[in-house]
Amino acid sequence: MAEFEDNRPLKVEVKGLTKRFGDLLVLDDLNFNIRKGEFVCVVGPTGCGKTTFLNCLTRIHMPSEGDLYIDGVPADPRKHNISFVFQEPSSLPWMTVEDNIAYGLKIKKLPQAEIDRRVNRILDLMGLQEVRKVYPGELSVSAEQRVIIGRSFAMEPDLLLMDEPYGQMDVKVRFYLEDEVIRLWRELGSTVVFITHNIEEAVYVAERVIILSNKPAHIKEELKIDLPHPRNIADPKFIEYRNYITDKIKWW
Amino acid sequence: MGSKQKERVHAILYWGLPVLAVILIVVAWVLFSAQHPELMPDPVSVWKRLIKTFVKPIGNTNLFGHAWASLSRVLLALLIAWAFGIFFGILIGWNRTARAIFGSIFEVIRPIPPIAWIPIMIMWFGIGELPKILLVFIGTFVPLVINTSAGISMVDKINISVGKVFGGSNMQILKDIVIPTALPSIFAGIRTSVSSGWTTVLAAEMLAAQRGLGSLVTKGWQGSDMALVLVAVITIAIIGSLLSFLLNKLEKVVCPWNSNK
């Protein structure tokens, strides 16, 4: 597939990113850029190092070689407004739903009125108003995940990283939340890096898909998904994209 | 049987059984004391002895005075132990250097029962208030440190990652994530400290004190006044269970997310 033009400024630059755990090479010299306001999906076979890649972006892990730059400076969660949706349920069990959503905003020391405004908006958007005073332990897994996603959107982040956020959801909730992510992405103009092993999901949401190889992961291909939103999963072009990516990450 | 009916039967059962257990004990007491009055005074004589503690005070104070003497020693020692114990527990759980320095000391001190310190305390500090409070402090400080540090070091990594991703400083992560995670465990330490503090103070008072429920036990024993011993023992039990009831209530206030489970 052909190269494509994009005039948006660069947001994230990944240069020679390599990560080893002891002798185990997980990420092997990754190089790519993400533009401001872009929605990028990273797909690859299970266990290929997708999560390690995200953890390097947020500095939970430090890269062994190479680095990541956000707006031209090395990524730093204290300098950059980075939001992260973890794969595992990561709500804070001792905080109510509304306090969970407000958590990141309080760390950033936003004015209380602004925190209230954003929390209310997220509660409305995510249909969580009724459970705002409830503790996450009393919610279903999918409702808890909505809290976590809400918490990230509340940050109105420069960069929103999502690590297979819908892995634990049923299909109906997943499609609903995928549409939500697209809508919020367009409203807020956030740059989103969305990791998934679900190829249909990647084709459904992404502007561009980065296909990773088996471990040690390198970039097999970058693919622009040239379809308007909302996308139709039964569209022949959609299916063509889906089959193309499936062929690329086949390891059997 | 419908599930609602079943629930009602269960509710009655779980309310009724504790009451039945208490009644059984009292009945056994009455029967036993009727057969062996020299070994065990009956409930009526214990009640009379209780009234007498108000009419004819022992050590210049009535039963309430003795109870308060014991309680005030425990509470004072507990307050100090909570402050230092939780602080030390957090330090040891959070900071590897602190754990390396103090961790093994606590592991060595932990198995020593607090009453084993009594001779040393009396030799060093005499038989005043200080050694008793110190003893209770020792008995309560150690479980607090152990529980707190265990709670702190068991913090879920993902929760710390959340704090880091949102750009929280180490102090913010400690305050917002680590300590709340450890709260149930800290509370378990507080619970242990209260019960162990209560037993320690009574043991200390039994050996050397003018006032306190422990001293009543000793006085009754030495004067062959078994009714007085029982008055003291029952008071000890009632205060002990009241303390544990209060702690349950307090836990629901301090860790509401935990008690809903």
Automatic annotation (TrEMBL), chain A:
Does the record carry ATP-binding as a key word? yes
One of the entry's Gene Ontology molecular-function terms is:
ATP binding
InterPro entries reported for this sequence: AAA+_ATPase (IPR003593), ABC_transporter-like_ATP-bd (IPR003439), ABC_transporter_ATP-bind (IPR050166), P-loop_NTPase (IPR027417)
Q: Does the keyword Ligase apply?
A: no
CDD domains with a match to the protein in the record: ABC_NrtD_SsuB_transporters
Q: Which residues form the ABC transporter domain?
A: 12-239
What is the protein name stated in its UniProt record?
A: ABC transporter ATP-binding protein
Q: Which organism is it from?
A: Caproiciproducens faecalis
Automatic annotation (TrEMBL), chain B:
Lineage of the native species? Bacteria, Bacillati, Bacillota, Clostridia, Eubacteriales
Q: Which InterPro entries match?
A: MetI-like (IPR000515), MetI-like_sf (IPR035906)
Protein name, entry field: ABC transporter permease
Which family is annotated? Belongs to the binding-protein-dependent transport system permease family.
Which compartments is it annotated to reside in?
Cell membrane
Occurrences of domain ABC transmembrane type-1 (ranges):
67-247
Per the record, membrane topology reads:
Multi-pass membrane protein
Name the keywords, alphabetized: Cell membrane, Membrane, Transmembrane, Transmembrane helix, Transport
Transmembrane segment boundaries:
12-32, 74-96, 108-127, 133-155, 227-247
**Which Pfam families would you find in this protein's record?**
BPD_transp_1
Under the heading Gene3D superfamilies, the entry gives: MetI-like
